[in-house]
Amino acid sequence: MATSPCSSSGVSSSSSSGLGADAGLEIRTRSVEQTLVPLVSQITTLINHKDKPKRSDKTLQAIQRVGQAVNLAVGRFVTVGEAIANENHELKEEMSVACIEARRAGETIAQLTDVASLDHPESDSHITIFTDKTGVVKAARLLLSSVTKVLVLADRIVIKQIITSRNKVLATMEQLEKVSSFQEFVQIFSQFGNEMVEFAHLTGDRQNDLKDEKKKARMAASRAVLEKCTMMLLTASKTCLRHPDCESARINKDGVFHRMRLALEQVIEIVTDSRPNGENEMAPISIYSGIKEFKNKVEGLRENLYFLSKENLSTMLEVILEHTEDFTDSAYTSHEHREHILELSKQAKMELEQLVSVWMQAQNQKTKDLMEDLEVAILKTCQCMNDLKREVHSAATSLAADLLKYHTDHMVLKALKITGVEGNLEAVAEYTCKLSEQKEQLVEMCRLLRHVSGTEPLEITCIHAEDTFQVTGPQIISAAETLALHPSSKIAKENLEVFCEAWESQLSDMSLLLREINDVFEGRRGEKRVYLSLPRPGKHNANLKALKPVKLDTEEQAKIAKLGLELHLLTSDLDSETEKWEDQENDIVQHGQGMSSMAYSMYLFTRGEGLLKTTQDLFHQAEIFATEGTKLASALHALSDQVHNDDKPLLLLEAEKLISMCKQLQITAKAPAQGKSATFTKVDACILKTRNVMTLLCQLLPLCCKLLRKNKAGNGCIKPAPPWKEDRIRTGTNARTPERRVDTFGIKSLENHVTNMTFLESK
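The line above is the sequence of Alpha-catulin; the predicted structure tokens follow.
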């Protein structure tokens, strides 16, 4: 196994208490961190009790109860840890030592806090928390260190499960590559599917548990590759079995297997925090990150004139300007943007020269006039860098918007399917050249967007998108060539459609990514449009004064994270539908966009982010969401008057279904809930019912378009969708996965024993 996660930095706690854990431990997951929080908090409270000359019986009893509670909780915790050790022999020795240390520390704390029955707790004849404060601190340190070791060792077991699952997948993949009959392939692929489901569950849980957002983004990208490639592997392998002598079919299949192996390897790199051959992770390479760091250094001169050299600052600017060459050298950058970027680059050099001149003078003679000149130079340099950042952002996003709009009709993909079925090799060759050109455009777009992405997770998403276009383009070409060589092959046709769908899906994802990049640039941090019906101080909340707002804790957020993720995916699907409508003022589109925006805010709530800060905010948003849904149902009734009589019953049925679901959501959102458990149940129900409404909307909008198109009524319909897409078989999206095996031991079972500890606050 690769480097374990327990071989790095430490756990910090209150400096006033003198507490600190083993410096050789680093907490990389939220579950481990959150398990330690109550223990650290309560021990710190115990250590920091006020030393008063007179101590009441109530105070002494409280201190003793805290010590006993710590000891009992540690005892239960250690019992679980010892059970884990017995189940995992390779960790038994380390786990046993950590458990013994934890038990010993818990007993020491119990002894030192055994003061309630003593007449004089500070007497030298009995060592207590009052006579040996240092002893308590040492015991607390040992306890935190040993508990952390147990948790991190348990976390290694989770990592081992992921590695074992990956190895199973790899072994089955090797079998799939070698099969020569359909019957054998079907049997092995069934096993492969089950193994992939298990791997998806394990890695999904790990992704949600990671603290590092950059690693989360990398994990999400790798898992997305594996998800899409699973379907590709099925059709590519079947095509290869049907046409074993076809070179293009073999190339197509080999490409899928290679990409899946790379994605599996990256997942293991992330969970083990290791890189092949000891390589270091690449430093940030975007213009945004370079400008941000450069400005921080420049503004730091206000506080300290000597903390860096002028050569250091000049080198930083040179690196930034080298990256701007990606824009100025690009064939897809407009002449106007190119000229502005070059002008601003030249200006940035001049501003830095002026800054350095004043800076050097200020180092020698710190006069008031020089310091004022330095301030002006700092402001002008930072303003120039802001202008440069704005210009490259405009260049990248305008190019992306134009390309995505231009390629939204997927004409090249349609042509490849048609010419492939016709067996027209010459026409296929012509359109594969056009697809290669399109691929180069989209790859360049991703590279430029990466520079202006604004955050590391979005930067990683841009890199993932670039890789996807780079790999999927040639795979579409090989699939199209196979179909052209075997035009009557149904499996070759299906295979091409799967790869084309992956291309279209990535284009759709790019629209969402572009919006998120613009949101970050405009300071919205990736949130959707603000929905103004959200309660604000002094408005709409006269009837809410008696209600106490509640926030979900981390454990509760984790429970609804998967439900929230489903809601996020549905908002993306609905946005894709609404953005295709030519008449954006259509009532159905307007209501759909509003509901998508509110659903996205609710998704952010499940992550502890966004404008919905409390459960009361969420419930109010759910009510408004349901009201908007009722308005959309009214728009559907109006549409039913425009359609043929044969179509009217279906539309009215869907409208009534929407009204019923919205009423149920309103009832749930308005229902009283007292207590933490009831509130969380209500939150879960609101998000679940919102998800159900969004699922219905994702089916309704394409139906409305189809009916409008059929009746040629008004201009509010979307552009015709490819016929093959309407008839495609949706696989895997709604399938129920097999019930997961319950793991008896692990982080969660340990977590319960610490999180459920109820301590008394010292008075």
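Note on the example: The radius of gyration is 31 Å. Residues 297 and 308 are 8 Å apart (CA to CA).
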